[in-house]
Amino acid sequence: MTATASALLVSDHVDGSVYVANVPDGTVTGRLTGRHLSEHAGFLALPGGRVACVDDRRGELLVLDPFGDELVELAVPVAVPAEHLACDPSGRRLAVTTGLGENAEPWSDLLTVVDLATGEAARVRTRVGEPGVTVLGGGDPLVVLRHREPGALAVHRFADLLTAPPGCPAVTPHARLPLPDDGHGDAHDPVSRQVFTATSEGVHTAHRTGDTLVAGRVIPWESPARGWYLRLDTRRRALWTTLRGGDPDPLRWPDWTNQAWRHDLETGRTLLTELGAGLVFRLALTRSHAAFTRIHPDGDELVLLDADDTLRRIPLPAMDGAPRRGGTPWEGVERRAVAASPGSGWVAVTRGGHGEVHLIDAGTGEEANRLRVSTPLHHGGHVMLLSRNDGADGDPVGR
Fold first, then answer.
1. What DSSP string describes 84-99?
2. Taking a C-beta distance cutoff of 8 angstroms, is the pair 359, 344 a contact?
3. Residue 399 domain flag
4. Do the domain assignments include residue 245?
5. In what helix (H) or strand (E) does residue 272 lie, and over which residues does it extend?
6. How far is the CA of 364 from the CAs of 22, 90, 215, 288, 361, in angstroms?
7. What is the CATH number of the domain that holds 78?
8. Percentage, residues of the chain above pLDDT 70
9. InterPro entries this protein is in (predicted)?
10. Less Cβ crowding at N or C end of the chain, within 10 Å?
11. Does the residue 197 lie in any domain?
12. How many CA atoms lie within 13 A of 328 on its CB side?
């Protein structure tokens, strides 16, 4: 495989370290310490190979340039704990919602908006919860919050939020669309100007008309299971998720079923592919593959689904502290993060607790390198693989 000039960002959000490494040789070219990035809000690709993320301890939105002379290009104060992060298609206007953090119940109603061109930022109060967010472009960009219980898409004008007075005033959306109460998973397609929300009913669609949203059809899961995560495939013009089925009791996680769900936005065709039992959640998209990690007591693996719908399964070394039978897959255990770039064929998979990142060639299924960092990568850490002009910024939602 001919490698593109790619970089790998690796975050240990518990230890507070961020590494930058060359791909595929694994040479670490930069490191930040004392930076505890929000794993839930994730990394957001910006134009020109730049990346946005949120430091949950310092309460800052960071713009990183892994290809530049200085890694931190900009730092802007924002409300935390960061739950979701998104930008408009230009990459200029960003929104950060707040969530639970280390708390049992939702408690924060703060939303921060940032204009990267001017450095301006404003905080407002919306509604307590864990809202998802998308930022729609156009002459007057819109911030769309996805709320639960009661479910709704709440539409705000970005300019109104940015010019709100100091003191974190409460704001009222100028438009709403009702949703089921169990929405979880958001995507935004700048080409069609559509917003997508995952619920138990399927994927609810809406499109911008003027300064509001108009509800579209609900895309069915075509399965008794449901997706909890949505990702836009910028190369194949598709939506992706993993459908999780079975007894929802977390103690039954080894028996959970998992299906790759792909919906072609051009043809309207939906394809389901069985991935196997266990814990499968987030996915990553290469130039020609979708990559999933599957954690199971009988052995972990990287699962690659290519453009011909062919599966390749690659065993992964076991993790000390991995989820066990009789326990949950969330509390006090190690996990894996996965990353890929739509401009290359590399896949990066972490080995939580071991400070290792496997770099795999999706075309051959072979491990090309194994990066070792000086922190354990607690809970699997978080990773992003990118090239300077790989088109990843066509997906304007943090991952």
1. EEEE-TTS-EEEEEE-
2. no
3. no
4. yes
5. strand 270-274
6. 20, 35, 43, 12, 6
7. 2.130.10.10
8. 99
9. Quino_amine_DH_bsu, WD40/YVTN_repeat-like_dom_sf
10. N
11. yes
12. 6
Q: Which domain holds residue 164?
A: 6-394
First-last CA distance in the chain: 26
Q: At residue 214, what is the residue type? A: V
1 lies in some domain: no
Q: What is the pTM of this model?
A: 0.96
* Residues 7 and 20: beta-carbon distance below 8 Å: yes
- The residue written with tokens 């169990």 in the block is 182
Strand-pair category, 346-351 with 356-361: antiparallel
* Domains in the chain, number: 1
Strand partners, 143: 135, 156
> Given strand 300-306, what is the order of strands in its sheet?
283-285, 289-294, 300-306, 311-316
Question: Taking a C-beta distance cutoff of 8 angstroms, is the pair 277, 256 a contact?
Answer: yes
Residue 257 tokens, joined: 């079923």
Per this entry, what is the length of the chain?
A: 399
